[in-house]
Amino acid sequence: MNPNEKTHKMKPMVRHVAGLLVLVCFGAGLLVAGLRPASSAAPAADADDPHYEYMDNETCGACHQEKLRDYQSSFMGQTPHDQVFRQFYAAVNARGKPDGIGFRAFKPKGASDCASCHTPDVVLDAGHELSLEEAIKRGSKGISCDYCHTIKDVKVIFDPKTGRYDTRIWKMVTRARGEVKRGPLKDAKSPFHKTKFSPIHVKSEFCAACHNNQEHLLSLDTYHVWKQAFDKGVVKQTCQQCHMPTGGKDRPIAIGGPVRPASQIHRHFFHGGHNAEMVKKAATMKAEASRRGETLVVNVDVTNSGAGHTFPGAATLRNVILVVDAVDEDGKPLAHAGSRKEVLPPLAGVGHSPRDFGGHVGAMFARPFATKSGKAPTGGFNADHVLFDTRIYPGQTAHRSFHFKAPASGHARVRVRLIYRWAFKPLVDKKGWKMDDIVIFDRKLTA
């Protein structure tokens, strides 16, 4: 059984607990395992109880059912058992066979910063890096509901002299574990736990605890880019406003709770680079084709009009490819008449499938890392330098021109596609992963 399958169905025991909670919410006065009514003997709201044990997500979801459904469907809710992450970490392919591609191929034993964000609960308990294997052995619940809602503060640590961040999570995150649950509402009340409004839960700094990762290179710069754009007024929204949107109808947040305006209810899908609808909101594209003597010129502008970070996102494997085809009226391909800069690199795919675009006319928007020997792509764990950085920053436009030999007679027909991929295709092919291209735009022109 895929370990992720366990997160998609509520176990019979949890359904039983949910039924009991419904009774409690309406005053039956029953106690449910793992939950305690708020008591005056509880620790102060800002105190951290080192003996506290995080509750399972299903316990929280017994009352917060919509939140549980949302979160279980998200990639964040599946960590640390997401298969692609685990396979890249363990340097094995989709069949579980060692392939030399991933973190454990670079460092066969010992701790890593991977566990800091995929199993933050036990890493914070330890106060230092752990291996993912050790963190899971110690019973990590991953990025659980209870983990996030007992965080008191997140401090972004940046040294302007070196231009580097300190992203050790135990230096950044302050917890207040206990029966007080923190969130964005000032008037929230619960019969099972105390509540407190938390300013950090509505700030992007909360997300910076993991979405900013300083290794030799700043391997994840999501917060860094957002902060610069936000301070300049280019970006208006926080991470939460974009990735935890409100909407729907007015409804209770928890069973037995008051009906709240939909504008107060943030969904917990955390949609991002694996969600087609989210990806398509990030950019706009303009394309035109014209003749200049015997040359056909195709001009394309791609604008990061919707992402508060780079397009594509900060993860080092994300990439967007611009694919340009030009044919005559009979469908015969027109010869490329431009420079090598107008041709896609091997990272766009090497092979003979219709999805392999390496060597094809086009452009790539990405930030691939390379090892000291020049091997690319690689993860931040053994990256020596950035191979190139053509990502589009918030509010900016990337202009690209492509040149073909114009047909001697008749019109030229041009097709321009903008395609998003969450990983470079050669890596996907070697690992045996399943990846569907997200076609953001597919435009046809005549000149």
What keyword list fits this structure?
447 residues, alpha+beta, Immunoglobulin-like, 2 domains, four-stranded antiparallel beta sheet, three-stranded antiparallel beta sheet, disordered N terminus
Please describe what this structure looks like.
There is one protein chain. This protein has 447 residues and is an alpha+beta fold. It has 2 domains: 3-79 and 143-264, no CATH class; 280-446, Immunoglobulin-like (Sandwich). It has helices at 12-25, 57-61, 65-72, 75-78, 83-90, 103-106, 114-118, 120-126, 132-137, 145-148, 169-172, 205-208, 222-231, 239-243, 276-280, 425-431, and strands at residues 151-154, 158-159, 164-165, 173-175, 180-183, 194-197, 213-214, 218-220, 251-252, 259-260, 283-292, 295-304, 319-327, 362-366, 369-370, 385-386, 397-405, 413-421, 438-446. It starts with 11 loop residues before the first helix and ends with a strand.
Describe what is shown at a glance.
With 447 residues, the protein is an alpha+beta fold. It has helices at 12-25, 57-61, 65-72, 75-78, 83-90, 103-106, 114-118, 120-126, 132-137, 145-148, 169-172, 205-208, 222-231, 239-243, 276-280, 425-431, and strands at residues 151-154, 158-159, 164-165, 173-175, 180-183, 194-197, 213-214, 218-220, 251-252, 259-260, 283-292, 295-304, 319-327, 362-366, 369-370, 385-386, 397-405, 413-421, 438-446.
